[in-house]
Design goal:
The structure is a single chain. By secondary structure, the chain is of the alpha/beta class. The chain has two domains: 156 residues, Medium-chain alcohol dehydrogenases, catalytic domain (Quinone Oxidoreductase, Chain A, domain 1), CATH 3.90.180.10; 147 residues, 3-Layer(aba) Sandwich (Rossmann fold). The protein has nine helices and 15 strands. Strands 3, 4, 5, 6, 7, 14 and 15 form a seven-stranded mixed beta sheet that branches. The protein has a six-stranded parallel beta sheet with strand order 10-9-8-11-12-13, with helices on both faces. The longest helix has 21 residues. It is globular and about 70 Å long.
Length: 349
């Protein structure tokens, strides 16, 4: 029985939602359904979702790769208004439930719906400067970049940070946060993001650098750091890029990895080099972060967006009943554009 539309729920208020009913490509796994509006419990609030981004993690979830129970409403990012009674009623909030709509923890339904129930401790006040769509587009990419650079790497002013996959949404967010921090980002990728000064181009079969005559990532990084190597690194790609990223670090350098790469292209990490140069490597899986800790990251991001130090990514919006197309756009690769669902602008069900 589909518990989202069980007979016991039919007398309750209804809402439109995207429901994962099977694992597979978006067209096979997702359905636009009318389901019961969830009811908040003790210490929880009901949020009307005005905008909710679609992330690569949502694609993996819909594909059945995370083992989430079915049926399930997916989605983690959100921007909306608290509509339940209580001290937070009427507040405009933003954020990301790190494991909403997934198999982890309490298995809470996600944000790709008109309403979502969240713990009060997961709330962060939305920047007034941002629209709901812009606020939802910040989401997982920025809190991941913040957790990696600020909380894990403790990036300091004047340090260099090597960022793989710099044209992706996490890479773009990390580059902007590094600049705000007063650090020097060196971006590795297949497409040079706008405004990036130090870029190592790997678009061809032979790795090349547009900032030096070097044909190797490590050589290019050494050239850009006067032979010292990068102080820190954030690897958002994994696979074949992980090894040269490790080798590009200075002695006692620090690195965070958030992606392993394709299963058939796993990195061969030089363990002896890690030991001999006393490197510090950390893995980051954002789904295991506590929602309250993530809300505190958004509290720290808010003034940076309010003052214009950070800006939201480019956005394409979709009504909720076009969610399959939005998911497919992310799956196809959206060139650094955030795909955002608008549940409150949904066409009548």
């Amino acid at each position: 029985m589909n518990t989202l539309t069980s007979p016991e729920d039919r007398a309750l208020p209804r809402m439109n939602a995207i429901v994962m009913e099977a694992g597979g490509p978006p067209a096979q796994s997702l359905a636009h359904r009318s389901v019961s509006v969830p009811e908040p419990g003790l210490g929880e609030v009901l949020v009307e979702v005005h905008a909710a981004a679609v992330n690569p993690l949502d694609i993996a979830n819909a594909a059945g790769l995370l083992g989430s129970p079915l049926p399930m409403i997916p989605g983690g990012d959100f921007a909306g208004v608290v509509v339940s009674d209580g001290a937070h009623q009427g507040e405009e909030v933003w954020g990301c439930g790190p494991a909403l709509g997934m198999a982890l923890g309490e298995k809470r339904p996600g944000t790709h719906a008109r309403f979502v129930v969240l713990p009060e401790t997961w709330l962060s006040r939305k920047p007034e400067r941002l629209t709901m769509t812009e606020a939802a587009a910040v989401g997982r990419s920025h809190f991941t970049a913040w957790q990696a650079l600020i909380n894990s790497l403790d990036l300091q002013p004047g340090e260099t940070v090597l960022i793989t996959g710099g044209s992706g949404l996490v890479g773009q967010a990390a580059t902007a946060i590094a600049r705000w921090r007063g650090a020097k980002p060196i971006v590795v990728g297949r497409r040079r993001p706008a405004g990036v000064e130090h870029f190592i181009d790997i678009s061809s079969n032979d790795i090349s650098s547009t900032d030096s005559s070097s044909t190797d990532i490590r050589a290019a990084v050494l050239d850009l750091t006067d032979g010292r190597g990068a102080d820190t690194a954030l690897d958002t790609v994994g696979g074949a890029l992980s090894e040269p990223t490790v080798r590009s670090l200075r002695p006692e350098g620090r690195m965070v990895v958030i992606a392993a790469g394709a299963p058939d292209r796993q990195a061969s990490v030089p363990v002896s080099e890690i030991i001999s140069r006393q490197l510090h490597l950390t893995g980051l899986a954002t789904v295991f972060l506590d929602g309250a800790d993530v809300a505190r990251i958004f509290d720290q991001l808010r003034p940076l967006f309010e003052r214009g130090f950070l800006v939201p990514p480019a956005v394409k919006t979709w009504p909720l009943d076009d969610a399959v197309q939005a998911y497919q756009a992310v799956l196809d690769g959206a060139a650094g554009i955030k795909q955002v669902l608008l549940p409150t602008a949904d066409r009548p069900y």
